Amino acid sequence: MKNIIFSIFTLLLSFNLNSQKDYYFYGNEKIEFNIDFQHLLIITENNFDNSLLKNLIPNNFDVISLQKSQDLTQIIVLKFSDSIDSSLYQKIVEVLYKEERISYVTYGLFDEHTKRIMYFSNVFNLCLMENQSFEELKNLENKFKISLVSQTSFMKNWYSFSTDKKSIMTCSELCKLLTSQKFFKHSEPEIINGFHNTCVNDTYFGNQWYLNNTGQNSGTIGVDIKVCDAWNVTSGSEEVITAVIDDGLDVTNPHPDLAQSIYPTSYDAYTQSTTSFPWAGHGTACAGIIAASSNNNEGISGVAPNSKIMAISNPFGLEVNSTQFGASLVRSFNFAVEQNADIISNSWQGAPSSVLTAAISNALLNGRNGLGCVVVFSSGNNNSSNSVYPGNSNPQIINVGAVDKCGTRAGSNTNSCDPWPIEKGEGSSYGSTLDVVAGGSSIYTTDLQGTAGFDNTNYTSSFGGTSAACPQVSGVAALILSVNPCLTQQAVH
After folding, report:
1. Element counts in the chain: helices (H) and strands (E)
2. Which of 22, 61, 292, 489 could form an SS bridge with 288, CB 3.0 to 4.6 Å?
3. Rounded to whole angstroms, what are the CA distances from 335 to 203, 273, 362?
């Protein structure tokens, strides 16, 4: 250890911001990243108010992630809208380190292979050579002003250390230096955001932030429904049926990502025929969110890909041509109950109707042989403090609002990091009847095949609103019932 010599010269050799690259060694392999000064990770004490950062940093930025850590610290990730170079970055770090409750600051690392932003942690792992003693580590602590965190369980000679702003070098700098020393076999920094569950092989799964938000497209990491964790338990069951009351599906020439999910019984409530009719593409988009096939190397994945969809169609948007459109909706609920649907998903709104309210109440009370159908409604896109009818008609309905990929209430307002087009509505409705929120902006899902849908392909990237949030929750209900089909609708709620 006494042969370890560090100096300003060594520090500059080991790390050069102007190179625009950083790296660590995995064995003899150099793992290299592009430095991304537009992203900044800050570790603070748990009680630090992140709004104070506006006073410390003059540049424009957004807080894209804030997570409490198990070690009573919080990890804050910023993204700058101004252009940041190495010189400005160093000035920002100097200012931040004057704040007593900030212990660590680092820039982003862009991995060209995974297209992800990662960060070097303030913790690194060190492996002693077989002939070295623990005393070498004590010397290391004193020389570099670092702290021993722990010895790795069941792994002889592996130890974890932490650095902070009082350390002689940053975590990554120190790892580079120690890698070259004869006392240590390995010296590697921990990588924050370096591991992720690929979950499935569907082509557009990486764009389905609402299922697994890794920060893609400037979203906030973790603003999602944690579907990868859920799939470790279940991906649904073909015994669980979600009736989608919407503008229908093409069941005769089904979408390739829905073909395995469509329940053989369907219904067009408007014409009272035994086959659902695709009046428009809204129902196809909702159905894909619930139960599109997964791991088929195509398209997207639904929340509950192994469950079934019962298509119940109505000509939403064309109801002006009917004097009894309300009766069509009543028939829709009654058909779902008669055919033993477990969940009824509804991404629509309308004028209050006593007969429709009664049909919904019947589904909640008498569906599933008395266990009750799980009835899910969107809260509406009216930007109102009151959810819209019928979602507000019964407290047993699961009422769903929408957020954007940054966790902000979704809408066309400027507060959203991913605003809707104004034609979708001003914003997600909220209020006392709201139960839960899910993703509602830039939603990838299935589309009518060809040019008949929202886009000119079989998929759309622009679905959104509370219409998109509602089927996500319906899919979650399908996952729950696949694990325990004996739950009442109140228990699922």
Report:
1. 11, 18
2. 292
3. 35, 12, 12
Residue 13 has pLDDT above 90, yes or no: no
Q: Is 399 strand, coil or helix?
A: strand
Superfamily grouping for domain 205-492: Peptidase S8/S53 domain (3.40.50.200)
Q: Are 207 and 214 in contact (CB under 8 A)?
A: no
pLDDT at 198: 58
**12 or 93, greater pLDDT:** 93
Phi-psi region at 344: left, alpha or beta (left = phi > 0; alpha = psi -120 to 50) = beta
* pTM of the model as a whole: 0.64
Strand partners, 309: 242, 262
The DSSP symbol for 390 reads T
The burial class, CB within 10 Å (0-12 / 13-18 / 19+), for 113 is exposed
Residue 87 to residues 92, 170, 175, 218: CA-CA distances in angstroms? 9, 17, 23, 24
Query: Does the domain spanning 8-192 belong to CATH 3.30.70.260?
Result: yes
User: For 193-208, what is each residue's pLDDT tens digit?
Assistant: 765 555 788 888 988 9
How far is residue 206's CA from residue 216's CA, in Å, rounded to a whole number?
A: 8
* Residue 409 vs residues 377, 432, 460, 469: alpha-carbon distances, Å: 17, 15, 22, 12
Domain map of the chain by residue range?
Answer: 8-192, 205-492
Place of tokens 């212990």: 103
